[in-house]
Design goal:
The protein is α/β, with parallel strands linked by helices. The chain is built from nine helices and seven strands; from the N terminus they run E-H-E-H-E-H-H-E-H-E-H-H-H-E-E-H. It has two domains: about 35 residues, no CATH class; about 260 residues, 3-Layer(aba) Sandwich (Rossmann fold), CATH 3.40.50.
Length: about 300
């Protein structure tokens, strides 16, 4: 059986995770660390080939690699010659998930996709995001793409693999490393993070709950554990996309309450997906299959 596995661009960072687990005196588990760069299709294929050779099943896949492109060292284009941010945040995860489809189906597993409140401002027709090498709005488009991907997994792999999208919230994490901390603007940004942003532990809560909650096929799913176990059934919408947020949305009002606020435990919300989502998601899936070489 596959133990917890952390895949990332640098083995060094993963090593610190292994050390942290080792510090827990009563922790009887283990953590495997492997190298994976979702911006590089060769890296994704090498990683998944190793996974399939070593293990037969995968119970939970959390697709959470990401960059906002604000670091000066971030490349503009991926190894494949397309937008680096969109490739890292979405297309690489699409390839990763499809390569591991058999393992997920055998385990009747689930996929957790990291989206963001920024999906509200994504390109209305997400299929257009694959038609140009560089895009100004690639970050927000990648987060909207994750929602279309989640909805389409729920339809195409229904009965075998569950899919849940999550908004981690506005988190004070390493994703902001590219923002300058110099001068007054830097000082103000630090104060902004300290007062309004969630800490990393709160930011990972939606992912952990989505990965560990019990799902009921009849009800489509209930949030499990703590306050979430007392929540009502998932709101049924015209979309197939299940979506967790860490904030309270009064009367279901998404903006501005989904942008930031006090941590209130993961709860269900309705993502903003366009009219014609089913057709768009299906066409987008097929286009992504062609881009990643997974067609047929």
């Amino acid at each position: 059986r596959l133990p917890p596995l952390r895949a990332g661009r640098g083995r060094g960072g993963g090593g610190s995770l292994v050390a942290d687990v080792g510090l827990e005196p009563h922790h009887g588990g283990q953590l495997i660390v492997k190298e994976l760069d979702t911006s590089d299709f060769d890296s994704v294929r090498s990683f998944t080939a190793d996974m399939k050779e070593s293990f037969s099943e995968l119970h939970v896949l959390v697709n959470n690699a990401g960059t906002n492109g604000k670091d000066a060292s971030t490349p503009q284009l991926s190894k494949q010659g397309r937008d680096y941010v969109f490739e890292t945040n979405f297309v690489g995860h699409f390839l990763l998930t499809l390569c591991l489809e058999g393992m997920l189906r055998r385990a009747r597993g689930r996929v957790v996709n990291l989206s963001s409140v920024m999906h509200h401002w994504g390109t209305k027709d997400v299929t257009r995001t694959l038609k140009s090498a560089r895009r100004k709005n690639s970050y927000r488009d990648s987060k909207l793409a994750m929602l279309h991907f989640t909805a389409e997994i729920s339809r195409r792999w229904k009965g075998d693999v569950a899919a849940i999208a999550v908004n981690p919230g506005f988190v004070s994490s390493d994703i902001w490393r590219g923002v300058s901390r110099q001068g007054v603007k830097g000082w103000l940004f630090d104060r902004f993070l300290s007062f309004l942003a969630l800490c990393p532990a709160e930011g990972c809560a939606t992912s952990v709950v989505a990965a560990a909650m019990q799902l009921n096929s009849k009800e489509e799913g209930k949030a499990g554990g703590g306050q979430a176990s007392r929540k009502k059934e998932i709101q049924r919408t015209r979309h197939e996309c299940l979506y967790l947020v860490p904030y309270v949305l009064p009367a279901g009002i998404r903006l501005p309450f989904e942008v930031m606020g006090p941590f209130m435990h993961p709860r269900w919300a309705t993502p903003r997906l366009p009219a014609g989502e089913v057709e768009i998601s299906s066409r987008f899936w097929e286009m992504c299959e062609e881009v990643t070489g997974m067609k047929g």
